[in-house]
């Protein structure tokens, strides 16, 4: 259904490259960096860190929603001429839907703003809603949906532009555990099917280990890279993996690396 | 009127109203109060029927003025808020004067307007002055209370200023705008009445408020009450219509309209 735009030969090249990126607020507080980060095409990377360590800021800088104070951001070339295609899909912590629009119209937004041809848009909206399992709810309004379903709409809206890079800012933090597990699994299968590059910001060790190929542990403000873990599993990610000794060992290691980031914080 | 609770909530004010009328009628009869001091409710009703040709014509005049003032206030308030939202400099330059216009009592401005403007125009301008401010301030508030992340999303997808205005800011501001219009409806009636009374004391006029002033001079107190009754009813109907429009526009998505039909 969805074609990969990444040629095999380029599969190992960088999708995102940050060099010496810092963010200093007007108040003089340094929130981030300096940060060097390389994310390969098709890779699933988590940025893990305490609140206020600048991981969301890093994501906003990659998306172009905020400018770095110093440093450079390079994104891989987006090689499509298709109207309504977009290099980046962004999923916020809240569903961030337009309450006055139906599910379908919410998903349509990026295509409408790009003035994509109507027939093409309708097809893509249908495909995106199928991908997140919400085809039946196309005509519902956001207030009629549960928290998990709203998040799925938000995900469909990010996917409808067929982005190369999916940026997710603690997207499942506000959901209950069962819903979060289901969305984790659905996200993994979407990632395997669609070959997107995913940068996933979270403060949950378990979530980051469960989802990612690589976990980047960030230090407390100003956020820098504290440690990196490559998560390799012998079995496919799923409920089996979640209860395996392998998974527990990774979580323990990552937690240990994260502990210094919380040192000195009240209540840590 | 589904539950007994709803029925009671509807019946109680009606009962109070009926009791008040009965008491009023009884007092007027018991003490033999003259109609030119205090007419009985029954006499007011009779006057309303007997004077209907002249009163209904005046009602039409006042309603038309109110409508014109309301439309001017709605358009003026929303357009001004949109301009302010697009240009900070314009907002800084003009907003203080909008406030000045709002806080100066319209009853004090009306006689001046009557000197410089034709009477009909002056009356509409009065209605506008009183009614436009709530529309302006509510719309301004609505336009600036857009979800920050949604705004970020529009930025990410390269939305133009016009697209952001049409697809994000205006829909987000709609509940606020409608709230402003609901206040403006009643206020434009007040503005029209105040201006008519000011004009009435100067001579010509034909609206309901003019009838009240005129009846006062002629000690035709029953007609004063009848005209007052019509003004109240007009105010209630205006509010009801605007509340209904607001409910119909918002019922699918906005919190304020929830629970009424779900």
From TrEMBL, chain A:
<keyword id="KW-0547">Nucleotide-binding</keyword>
<dbReference type="InterPro" id="IPR017871">
    <property type="entry name" value="ABC_transporter-like_CS"/>
</dbReference>
<dbReference type="InterPro" id="IPR027417">
    <property type="entry name" value="P-loop_NTPase"/>
</dbReference>
<feature type="domain" description="ABC transporter">
    <location>
        <begin position="16"/>
        <end position="245"/>
    </location>
</feature>
<dbReference type="GO" id="GO:0005524">
    <property type="term" value="F:ATP binding"/>
</dbReference>
<keyword id="KW-0813">Transport</keyword>
<protein>
    <submittedName>
        <fullName>NitT/TauT family transport system ATP-binding protein</fullName>
    </submittedName>
</protein>
<dbReference type="InterPro" id="IPR003439">
    <property type="entry name" value="ABC_transporter-like_ATP-bd"/>
</dbReference>
<dbReference type="Pfam" id="PF00005">
    <property type="entry name" value="ABC_tran"/>
</dbReference>
<dbReference type="GO" id="GO:0016887">
    <property type="term" value="F:ATP hydrolysis activity"/>
</dbReference>
<keyword id="KW-0067">ATP-binding</keyword>
<comment type="similarity">
    <text>Belongs to the ABC transporter superfamily.</text>
</comment>
<dbReference type="InterPro" id="IPR003593">
    <property type="entry name" value="AAA+_ATPase"/>
</dbReference>
<comment type="function">
    <text>Involved in beta-(1--&gt;2)glucan export. Transmembrane domains (TMD) form a pore in the inner membrane and the ATP-binding domain (NBD) is responsible for energy generation.</text>
</comment>
<dbReference type="InterPro" id="IPR050166">
    <property type="entry name" value="ABC_transporter_ATP-bind"/>
</dbReference>
Automatic annotation (TrEMBL), chain B:
<feature type="transmembrane region" description="Helical">
    <location>
        <begin position="189"/>
        <end position="213"/>
    </location>
</feature>
<feature type="transmembrane region" description="Helical">
    <location>
        <begin position="94"/>
        <end position="116"/>
    </location>
</feature>
<feature type="transmembrane region" description="Helical">
    <location>
        <begin position="122"/>
        <end position="143"/>
    </location>
</feature>
<feature type="transmembrane region" description="Helical">
    <location>
        <begin position="225"/>
        <end position="250"/>
    </location>
</feature>
<feature type="domain" description="ABC transmembrane type-1">
    <location>
        <begin position="59"/>
        <end position="246"/>
    </location>
</feature>
<keyword id="KW-0812">Transmembrane</keyword>
<keyword id="KW-0813">Transport</keyword>
<dbReference type="GO" id="GO:0055085">
    <property type="term" value="P:transmembrane transport"/>
</dbReference>
<comment type="similarity">
    <text>Belongs to the binding-protein-dependent transport system permease family.</text>
</comment>
<keyword id="KW-1003">Cell membrane</keyword>
<keyword id="KW-0472">Membrane</keyword>
<protein>
    <submittedName>
        <fullName>NitT/TauT family transport system permease protein</fullName>
    </submittedName>
</protein>
<feature type="transmembrane region" description="Helical">
    <location>
        <begin position="164"/>
        <end position="183"/>
    </location>
</feature>
<dbReference type="GO" id="GO:0005886">
    <property type="term" value="C:plasma membrane"/>
</dbReference>
<dbReference type="Pfam" id="PF00528">
    <property type="entry name" value="BPD_transp_1"/>
</dbReference>
<dbReference type="InterPro" id="IPR035906">
    <property type="entry name" value="MetI-like_sf"/>
</dbReference>
<feature type="transmembrane region" description="Helical">
    <location>
        <begin position="54"/>
        <end position="82"/>
    </location>
</feature>
<keyword id="KW-1133">Transmembrane helix</keyword>
<dbReference type="InterPro" id="IPR000515">
    <property type="entry name" value="MetI-like"/>
</dbReference>
């Amino acid at each position: 259904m969805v074609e990969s735009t990444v040629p095999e030969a380029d599969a190992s090249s960088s999708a995102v490259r940050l060099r010496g990126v810092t963010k200093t607020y007007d108040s003089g507080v340094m929130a981030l960096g300096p940060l060097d980060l390389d994310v390969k095409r098709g890779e699933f990377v988590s940025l893990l860190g305490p609140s206020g360590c600048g991981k969301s800021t890093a994501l906003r800088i990659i998306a172009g929603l905020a400018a770095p104070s110093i440093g450079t951001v390079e994104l891989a070339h987006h090689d499509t001429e298709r109207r309504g295609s977009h290099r980046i899909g962004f999923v916020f912590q809240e569903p961030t839907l337009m309450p006055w629009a139906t599910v379908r119209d919410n998903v349509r937004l990026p295509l409408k703003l790009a003035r994509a041809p109507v027939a093409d848009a309708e097809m893509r909206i249908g495909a995106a809603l199928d991908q997140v399992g919400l085809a039946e709810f196309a005509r519902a309004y956001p207030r009629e949906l549960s928290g998990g379903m709203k998040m799925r709409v938000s995900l469909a809206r990010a996917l409808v532009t067929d982005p190369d890079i999916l940026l997710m800012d603690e997207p499942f933090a506000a959901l209950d555990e069962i819903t979060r597990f289901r969305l984790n699994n659905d996200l993994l299968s979407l990632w395997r099917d669609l070959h997107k590059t995913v940068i996933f910001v979270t403060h949950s060790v378990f979530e980051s280990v469960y989802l990612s190929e690589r976990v980047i542990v960030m230090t407390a403000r100003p956020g820098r890279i504290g440690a990196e873990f490559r998560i390799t599993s012998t079995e496919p990610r799923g409920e089996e993996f979640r209860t395996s000794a392998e998974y527990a060992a990774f979580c323990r290691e990552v937690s240990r690396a994260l502990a210094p980031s919380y040192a000195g914080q009240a209540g840590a | 009127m589904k539950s007994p609770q709803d029925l009671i909530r509807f019946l109680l004010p009606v009962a109070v109203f009926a009791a008040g009328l009965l008491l009023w009628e009884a007092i007027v009869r018991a003490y033999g109060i003259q109609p030119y001091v205090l007419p009985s409710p029954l006499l007011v009703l009779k006057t309303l029927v007997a004077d209907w040709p002249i009163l209904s014509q005046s009602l039409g005049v006042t309603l038309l003025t109110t409508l014109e003032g309301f439309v001017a206030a709605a358009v003026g308030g929303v357009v001004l808020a949109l301009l302010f939202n697009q240009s900070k400099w314009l907002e800084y330059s003009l907003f203080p004067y909008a406030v000045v216009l709002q806080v100066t009592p319209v009853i004090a401005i009306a006689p001046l307007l009557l000197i410089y403007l034709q009477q009909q125009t002056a009356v509409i301008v009065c209605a506008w002055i009183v009614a436009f401010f709530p529309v302006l301030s509510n719309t301004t508030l609505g336009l600036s209370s857009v979800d920050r992340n949604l705004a970020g999303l529009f930025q990410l997808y390269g939305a133009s200023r016009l697209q952001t205005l049409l697809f994000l800011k205006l829909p987000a501001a709609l509940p606020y705008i409608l709230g402003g219009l609901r206040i403006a409806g009643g206020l434009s009636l007040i503005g029209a009445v105040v201006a008519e009374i000011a004009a009435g004391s100067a001579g010509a006029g034909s609206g309901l408020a003019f009838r009240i002033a005129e009846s006062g001079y002629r000690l035709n107190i029953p007609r004063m009450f009848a005209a007052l009754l019509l003004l109240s009813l007009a105010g209630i109907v205006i509010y009801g219509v605007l509340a209904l429009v607001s409910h119909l526009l918002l019922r699918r998505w906005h919190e304020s309209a929830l629970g009424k039909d779900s």
